Amino acid sequence: MPKDMPENLPFEFFFSPEFSANPYPMYAELRAKGPVHRVDFPPGAEAYVVVDYEHGRAALADPRLSKDINSGPEWFREAVRDGDPILADNMLMADPPDHTRLRKVVQRAFTPRRIELLRPRIEQITAELLDGIAGRGRAELIADFAFPLPIVVICELMGVPVEDRELFREWSGALIDPPIDEKQQARKVRATESLRVYFTDLIAERRADPGEDLVSVLVTSDELDDRELVSTLALLLIAGHETTVNLIGNGMLALLLDPEQFALLKSRPELVPNAVEEFLRFDAPVERGTFRIAVEDMEIAGIPVGKGAFVHVSIGAAGRDPRANAHPDGLDVARQDTRHVSFGHGIHFCLGAPLARLEAQIAFAMLLERLPDLRLDCREDELSWRLSGSIVRSLSALPVAF
Ligand code: HEM
C-alpha cells in the first residue's frame, strides 16, 4: 500500500493489480482523510471519488448528478460516440423523462411478485448444476456453478437461446472489461458488433412471431425504438449475470476464508437471506462503483465539484464505512441493519435486485446443504481476480474440494 497517498489520485491507482486484489485497505486509508477525493480518471478530467456511505448514497440519488453522457464534456461525448456505444441508449445511461420511459416497460417483468414465480425453476437449475459436480470431489465454482446459474436464468427469462451462453460470456466480458490496449479495444469492437447483429435479428424474429418472453414483451410494446431495444437487451443480458456471478463467487470465498462464519451459517440456514445482504456489503459485486456527471456547480462534503465533473461513487468502499456498519472488515452473516449501496440507490436502483437476491439465496442454501464440507482447493494467494480496472470484482476461478 502506498505510504504517501497523492492528493490527486492517478488513474493507474485504480487499475493496479494490487488494488484489484484487495482494494479495501486503500479505501480505508482514503476515507480516513475525507469522504471525497480528486482523481485523475478519466485522465485530465475534473473527477472525484466518493468513498464513504453517507455521501456516496446521497450522490447516487442526487438529481444534480446525471447519468446521461450528454451531460459530460465534449471530448467525452465524442469518445463515447466513437466507441460505438451499444450500452448508451438504455435506462442506466438516461435521466428523466427518458429514464422513466425506458425503465417502466422492463420494470413490469421484474416486480418481486413476478420474480418469486421463478423460484421453482431456479431451484431446479441449481439442483441440476449441483448434481453435475456433487460426485466429483472437486469443482471450479465459478465455471461450474456461479456463472451458469444466472446466465441460464436470465436467458430463459428474456427468451434468449441458452445454447449461446458462451458467446454472451465472451461479448459481455469484452464490453465491461476496460479497453486497456489495442487488443482489448479490438475485442470490444467485435463484441459490440456481434451483440448488435444478434439482437437485431432476434428483435425481427420476435416481431414476426411474438411469444410470452421478455424480448417479445419489449418489442411489441412500441415504447422503445430499435436502438433503445438493442441497448436494453444488451444491458439486461450483461447486468443479469456479470453481477450475480460475483455475488455467489465473492460470498462463497468470504465463507471459505472464515470457517467460524461458515459453520454458523450451516448451523442456522435461516440466516441465508441475511448472509446474502452481508456478502453484498462485504465484497460488493460492482465493487468499483458507478459514475455520475455534475450538471451544475455543487459541493459534496464541502468539496467544490464543477459542472461537467465526473463523480465516481465507490460502492465497495461505502459498504466498509465504519460509520455505516460496525467492524466493517469482518464478515458477520448474522449482522442486522446491514447498510450498503451494492444495488445502487435512487431512481437507478438495480432493477434486477429481487432476481439477484432470490438466485443468491437459493444458491447458498442449496450449496451449503449439498456440499457442507466445501473447502478452498488452492492457497489464498493463488486466487486471481479478473483484469484489473474492471468495474466488477470478479474471481477468475474458485477451485474447491468437498
Ligand atoms: C442497476 C448492481 C443484478 C439489471 C444497477 C446498479 C447497481 C447494480 C449498483 C445501479 C447503477 C447506477 O446507479 O449507476 C447489481 C448487483 C447485482 C445486480 C450487485 C447482483 C448481485 C442485476 C440483475 C439484473 C440487473 C440480475 C437484470 C436482470 C439492472 C438494470 C439496472 C441496474 C436494468 C439499471 C436500472 C436503472 O438505471 O434504472 N445494478 N445488479 N441487475 N441493474 Fe443491477
From TrEMBL:
The keyword Iron applies. Belongs to the cytochrome P450 family. This is Cytochrome P450. Transmembrane segments: none annotated. PROSITE patterns: CYTOCHROME_P450. The keyword Oxidoreductase applies. Keywords: Heme, Iron, Metal-binding, Monooxygenase, Oxidoreductase. It comes from Nonomuraea endophytica. It comes from the Bacteria.
